[in-house]
Amino acid sequence: MANDIQREPETTEHQNDDASVLVVLINNARDWESIQGERWYRIPVKRAPRQVGAEYLAFFHTAVFEELRWGVHYYAPVESMRVAPRRLLLPAEADHPRANDLYYRFDLGPLTRLEQPIPSRRLRRVTFIHTSLTRLLEAEDVSDLWIKQPLRERLWVEFNRQGIHAEPQGSLHEAEINYQFDFVIPCQNGAVAIDCRLPQDDEVAAGVGREEPIAYPPSEDEQMLAQLNYSWLRFDDPGWSSNLQPYMMQVWKEIEKRGGQL
Asked: For the chain, what is the HEC assignment?
């Protein structure tokens, strides 16, 4: 298997540095073995990002992997993608409760190890990140991978200036809840989730890295979000883009209610 893992070439010249990359989560040994030994990876259709296609996959390892944890060390080209039920992808587990659930299967080319691994110094809840090959090869931290829209870029800069450790494109998958927020700020007691958009601006309404607008969680789910210890802020007033301070005050207030940042 070691022969299938390539080293990042000394030169960083690639045929297409703007090639699309989807950073995915590796949180169990079996999936990592499938990537290394059989060259394929799976994403449940129910939990997939809205834009699932990419020319490359890069892999973010969790704490399960002692040497690789909390970082991106490898990537691989996507050779093909198809949808199949879990029972066909994992025939040895045909009796699994989710055997009929649909998954995206990515068939991959050889793994390449990044010459400079990309650590995650603060972020721990990474799900999917859309980025480019250029960013992947130049990033010094996982937070450098996100491609942000201009208005959200201002909020992102302000978060960093004020010492707020926000996760762009944070997701929540819990029970029947399956949402993606523009930012999530992990706190001692839950988290602060933030959506920011201008309804009349289609580009902004599409969200961070999104190609189409996605609806706010319906009002009846706000109580469920609160039960999960999520404060949910919506910045949809056109005035917020010209004066961030009132909204930053709201953010700090909710962070304090949640016991401060992690």
From this structure: CHHHEEECCCCCCCCCCCCEEEEEEECCHHHHHHHHHHCEEEEEHHHCCCCCCCCEEEEEECCCCCCCCCEEEEEEEEEEEEEEEHHHHCHHHCCCCCCCCEEEEEEECCEEEEEEEEECCCCCCCCCEEEEHHHHHHCCCHHHHCCCCHHHHHHHHHHHHCCCCCEECCEEEECCEEEECCEEEEECCEEEEEEECCCCCHHHHCCCCCCCCCCCCCHHHHHHHHHCCEEEEEECCHHHHCCCHHHHHHHHHHHHHCCCEC
